[in-house]
Specification:
Order of helices and strands: HHHHH
Oligomer: single chain
Strand content: under 5%
Radius of gyration: 21 Å
Shape: extended
Number of helices: 5
Helix content: 25-40%
Distance between the termini: 36 Å
């Protein structure tokens, strides 16, 4: 449903069926919406994933440091924009030499 829901496509249609919303499709969509609404807006985890009483684990996730090379490149370009230049932003473009 993470693909179908945002696009308004029924699950059964995504699987090759006709473009209709069955009762099962509607149930899946409602379940998916509830599931998504329970996620923390900051980290994306749900409380039950951390709660052993609900089948989770108090160490369900571990942090790790990652680096996005695209964000690093954008940040270097962002430094070239002066504070008095509102409306300017940095966009990445494919490098034809790479």
């Amino acid at each position: 449903m993470s693909y179908c829901g945002p696009r308004g496509i029924s699950h059964s249609h995504f699987l090759g069926g006709p473009p209709v919303w069955s009762a099962h499709d509607r149930d899946l969509a409602l379940w998916w919406q509830i599931h998504e609404s329970e996620k923390c807006p900051s980290c994306g985890t749900r409380e039950d994933e951390w709660d052993p009483a609900k089948g989770g684990h108090d160490h369900a996730y571990r942090w790790e440091i990652r680096q996005c090379w695209g964000c690093l490149e954008k940040a270097s370009g962002q430094k070239k924009i002066k504070d008095d230049e509102p409306g300017k932003w940095v966009a990445l473009q494919s490098n034809p030499e790479a």
